[in-house]
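Attaching the record inline, Q. Sequence:
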Amino acid sequence: MAAPPQVRQLSSNSDKALNSAASFISSVLQKYPLGRTALETIPHETEVLRGDLMDIISGVLIEQGISIWEVSKRDVLASFGYPSPRFRDQVRKTISVIWPGVNGSFGSPLLKDALALGLYCQVEYLFNL
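Structure, as predicted:
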């Protein structure tokens, strides 16, 4: 039986959000040891808090010796068809067909985004073997 998805909503207070993100990632790593991770890159200049969260999460992963594969949103979208989908919702519809069990669950759009990123990375990894 698969483990339930790990989803966390963060505080709007940036200090609380950063601390919560670090402890959440640490607790996930204790339950589910990872060898590598995938993170979607975030432009720091336009999304300061999300950029800071990315830095905190990356720091925890690096501290634990876990490799990080950083991928742009554009690359993930481009991998889901030709011509490339322009919006996440188009990719989410495809993910809904592949994994219908995610539909309607808590955090469903975020889980679909994570699944799209994971699928992209797994396919790229297999092509590079």
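The chain has a mean pLDDT of 88. The first helix runs from residue 14 to 31.

More tomorrow.
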